[in-house]
Write a structure and sequence with these properties.
Strand order of the largest sheet: 5-6-4-1-7-8
Largest sheet: 6 strands, parallel
Strand content: 15-25%
Number of strands: 17
Distance between the termini: 9 Å
Helix content: 25-40%
CATH superfamily of the largest domain: Phosphoglycerate kinase, N-terminal domain
Radius of gyration: 22 Å
Number of domains: 2
Length: about 400
């Protein structure tokens, strides 16, 4: 990575403003998954080791509509971070302005302050420079460690860099190094696994990856659109009708690199209590039924390809893994990735649902790199430059 990081700057005595990704699930006022908070800890520890005047943290949480909403307050995150960091964390109910500045001034040396949700300001997502200037007033130097938001040009990711010297945190550096170096010079065979619901979300990713991978395995709802392009009857399965022709063109262009499901688990409704059966794709899906997971023959075929891989990138589940009858395909891929990682393969899982599946399977420690950013990792797979990274100081 050709960007400066916290290792390249002196933070002693400075007010360090850090953009973190604390966009975590909160249920009944409690953080239900602290993965993203844990991911920020090494950067914060490294900053505190430099004896800064203080560390001020900002993040978004969820999608509040048009202003402050207690449901999206970051307040429950402060005690979780304090426990993980082993360091007191104060909370400011204001994001910017006199109240936030007073909370910062009251901090002891090397104190840590978490600001309220940046998205309580609707202009944050418009990269409003007035808001960014108010944010910048809380720091002497800016550190962006929020890879999960690096693909968005917001006040707290890009705007603030107009007013402060800006460098990357350790998590940001790690994410970019893994994804960029893997895509630039992957050890072969290089296999990508794509899933999730929509082809349209991942067209650019597919086109970018086809020039790099040895095999591209496609599962999940997006596989249905490719199967429809091959003329199979899919019953009530999710198909993006507007993308069928494009899927046909991608298959023609792929030169045999794309592998699609040969069988699937179907259900008569989208429900954990659905009646299910396994059918061969060639036999067709009956009317009233829909494909919700890849089947055992597909799992065997996909895993045989993965077993030979030296580098694997996975983004998107193989089925509706939140519902137990349709989870087997996703978890089978997760276990195969863990198995090949143990034999020395590089495995990178890109954010969102695939990362959740890895966590749920208890395999997070057995994957080379589990990305914290779904959308950001997808854009890197497309070969895009992320605005939140571009705005940082070059080495």
């Amino acid at each position: 990575m050709n960007k400066q990081t916290i290792r390249d700057v002196v933070l002693k005595g400075k007010r360090v403003l850090v953009r973190v990704d604390f966009n975590v699930p909160i249920e009944s006022g409690q953080v239900s998954d602290d993965t993203r908070v844990r991911a920020a800890v090494p950067t914060l520890q490294a900053i505190l080791a430099q004896q800064p005047r203080c560390v001020v943290l900002m993040s978004h949480l969820g999608r509040p509509k048009g202003g402050p909403d207690p449901k999206y307050s970051l307040a429950p995150v402060a005690p979780v971070l304090a426990t993980l960091l082993g360091h007191e964390v104060a909370f400011s109910a204001a994001t910017v302005g006199p109240e936030a500045e007073a909370a910062e001034a009251a901090l002891p040396p090397a104190g840590v302050l978490l600001l309220e949700n940046t998205r309580f300001f609707p202009t944050e997502e418009k990269n409003d420079l007035d808001l960014a200037k108010q944010m910048a007033a809380l720091g002497d130097i800016f550190v962006n460690d929020a890879f999960g938001s690096a693909h968005r040009a917001h006040s707290s990711t890009v705007g603030v860099t107009e007013y402060l010297p800006s460098v990357a945190g350790l998590l940001m550096e790690k994410e970019i190094n893994y994804l960029a170096s893997t895509l630039e010079s992957p050890e072969k065979p290089f296999v990508a696994v794509l899933g999730g619901a929509k082809v349209s979300d991942k067209i650019a990713v597919i086109e970018s990856l086809l020039g790099k991978v040895d095999k591209l395995l496609i599962g999940g709802g997006m596989a249905n659109t490719f199967l429809k392009a091959q003329g199979f009857a899919l019953g009530n399965s999710l198909v993006e009708e507007g993308s069928v022709e494009l899927a046909r063109e991608l298959l023609a262009k792929a030169g045999g690199k794309i592998e699609l499901p040969s069988d699937g688990v179907i259900g008569d409704k989208f429900d954990a209590a659905a009646n299910t059966q396994t059918v061969a794709v060639a036999a067709g899906v009956p009317e009233g039924w829909a494909l919700y997971d890849i089947g055992p023959d597909t799992v065997a075929a996909f895993n045989a390809i993965l077993a030979t891989a030296k580098t694997v990138v996975w983004n998107g589940p193989m089925g509706v893994f939140e519902l137990a009858p349709f989870a087997a395909g996703t978890f089978a891929v997760a276990h195969e990735l863990a198995a090949i990682t143990r034999t020395g393969a590089i495995t990178i899982v890109g954010g969102g649902d695939s990362a959740a599946a890895i966590e749920e399977a208890g395999l997070a420690s057995q994957i080379t790199h589990l990305s914290t950013g779904g959308g950001a990792s997808l854009e890197m797979l497309e070969g895009k430059t992320l605005p939140g990274v571009a705005a940082l100081l070059d080495k």
